[in-house]
Amino acid sequence: MAKFEEISLEKEIYDAARKEGETLTQHLEKLDPSEEYKGSKLAKLDAFERQLRRQKLKVTGNACLVADFFKTSGSAVLFPEFVNRNVRLGMGRGKFEATPDELAATTTQIDSGVYKGVEFDLSNSDIDHVRTAEGAIFSKVIAKTKEKAINLHKIGRTIESSYEALRRVKANVLAVALQAIGTKLSRKIVSEMVGVIINGDGNTNPAADVGIASPNTLTYADMLELELEFDEGFEPSLMLADKATMKKVMSLTEFKDALIASEWLTNGKPQNIFGNALRINAYVGADIILAIDPRSAIEMLEEKGGSLVETEKLIDKQFERVVISKVVGFNKLFTGASRYLDISP
After folding, report:
1. Angle CA 119–122–125, to nearest 5
2. Predicted TM-score (pTM) of this structure
3. Based on the structure, what is the number of domains in the chain?
4. Residues 209 and 126 in one domain
5. Which of 24, 25, 66, 215 has the largest CB neighbor count within 10 A?
6. What b/e readout covers 133-153, taking b as 16+ CB neighbours within 10 angstroms?
C-alpha cells in the first residue's frame, strides 16, 4: 500500500494542521512527501491531489459533482481544502491588480487577535557613520515597542446557498466561482494594506506626500520626484493608483514611447516606470500615486493556522451561510519605505 493510502482522513486532521500553522495541503505534504514519488506516475501530483485521486474525485476536465465529495466521510474531509485552494488561487491572480503577496515584506502568523509591533526609527537614529576609534561608542538605531497594538480582523464574504443547490454543480465550475471570490477578497485585503501604508497603523506613522509642482497637472518631473524622494536606504519598486490615475501616468508622453511601452503595446503586460511595476487598486484614492519599497513597507499578520472557510460546516454539508474570510492585520514597518504623490491636493 502506498503511503498516501495509509493517511486517515478525519475532521481532526484540520486541527493537527492548524496547530502547526499549516494548510491541509502543507500538512499532507509532511505526512506524504511529494519528493518520494519522483519518477512515478504520481510525480506530477501534490499530496492533496493524491488524496483526491485516492477518493476518485476528478476536479478538472470531466469533473465530478460536488455531491461526490460527500459519498464517504474521507472524501468529505477534502472538500474544505478544495474550497481553500481555489480561493487562494484566485487571491494570487491579477495582471494589473496588486496582490497581498506583492505588498507584504513579510507575513507573521500569531495566536491572538492583538499584536504589539516593534518600530525601528531610522530617521532619528545616528546611522550615517559607523567607523569608530577603539573604545568609542558605536552609532545607534532606535528600536522600541509601538504604543498602539495592531488588532486583527476578518475580511470576507458570505455565500448563501444550500447543499441541494450545489450538489449537482460540477467541481470545475465551482472552482471558477471560488477563484473569482478569491480575487475579490485579495483586492479588499490590498485596499486595507494600502490604507495602512498611506495613513499609518495608528502609531503616528503616515506616508509623506512628496508634493506636486502644479496642482491638477501631472508631469514627468513629478513622477521623477516621487521616484527620487526615497532615502534611508529604501528604493521603490512598486507604484499603485486607481484606474483613472493610472491612465494619467501611462498617458504621459515620456511613458508612451514605443521602447518603454513595448511590452504593453504588444502583449498587454504593464510596463515598468523607473523600474517600478505598475499596479491598480480602486481604494488607493483619487489622484493618488503610491510608491512602495515592498521589501520594507508593511508586515501582514495572519491568524495562525487560519482556514479561509468554516471547515466543520462544510464537512457536515451545512451550506446555508458559508463564510469565506481571512483574519488579518497590518503592521507598518518603516515609514521611509513609502511615499505618495497627490495630484490634486
Report:
1. 110
2. 0.89
3. 3
4. no
5. 24
6. eeeeeeeeeeeeebeebbebe
Cα 278 to chain center, whole Å? 16
CA dihedral sign, ordered 328, 333, 338, 342? positive
Whole-number mean pLDDT of the chain?
91
User: DSSP assignment, residue 304?
Assistant: T
Give the chain's end-to-end CA distance (angstroms, integer): 68
Q: What is the mean pLDDT of residues 70-94?
A: 95
Inter-CA distances, 119 with 90, 126, 243, Å = 33, 15, 33
d(CA 25, CA 308): 13
24 touches 84 (CB < 8 A): yes
Query: Is residue 104 in a domain?
Result: no
- Asked whether the predicted pLDDT for residue 133 surpasses 90, the reply is no
Query: What is the SS3 assignment for 2?
Result: coil
Question: Is 77 part of a structural domain of the chain?
Answer: yes
Distance, in Å, from the CA atom of 276 to the CA atom of 286, rounded to the nearest integer, reads 20
